[in-house]
Design a protein that fits this description.
Elements (H helix, E strand, L loop, with lengths): L7 H6 L4 H33 L3
Length: 53
């Protein structure tokens, strides 16, 4: 199985679609982090609302 890119810089640029690919990666990362943070906040609120046993 051969390499898809000749060098690391070719991988980073991903000519000619690099901007679209990296933008999609960024959007997915922001959404994923947002979901993780919001679920933690909701969990803490639910625990606080329930109170200590």
């Amino acid at each position: 199985m051969g390499n898809y890119f000749a060098s690391f810089s070719d991988f980073i640029t991903m000519t000619p679609y690099g901007a679209y690919i990296w933008s999609a990666y960024g959007i997915v990362m922001v959404v994923t982090l947002g979901l993780l943070v919001s679920s933690q906040i909701r969990l803490k609120r639910a625990i606080k609302k329930r109170g200590s046993p």
